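Checklist before submission:
- one chain only
- standard amino acids only
- sequence pasted in full

Submission:
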Amino acid sequence: MPAPPSCHPTAYAIARGLDCGWPGAPPQLFTRAQDEADRLLASARDDAEAMRLQTEDYVDAKLANFEVVLAKTLATVERGRSRLSGGTDLDALRSEDPEDEP
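Returned file contents:
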């Protein structure tokens, strides 16, 4: 393991349990620092996962709304094309109703 550039209480030294000659520094200090670092990492990972799930829910809701808008737009376009080809709204309704078919 390479030595840190300078020997002072850095995260590098604490995470690796390096004793930089601090007078009276107890070994438990390094263990506590590592435990705290592990706790912070776990918390950050949990927060990131929660944010990812919230983002997926948000995007899914937006896409569902967009799908509804597109379906309505498609129906409007189909009615407009039917009118241009000489059909009427009544013709369109008849073609959609299975009971009217012989």
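Reviewer check: Residues 11-100 form one domain.
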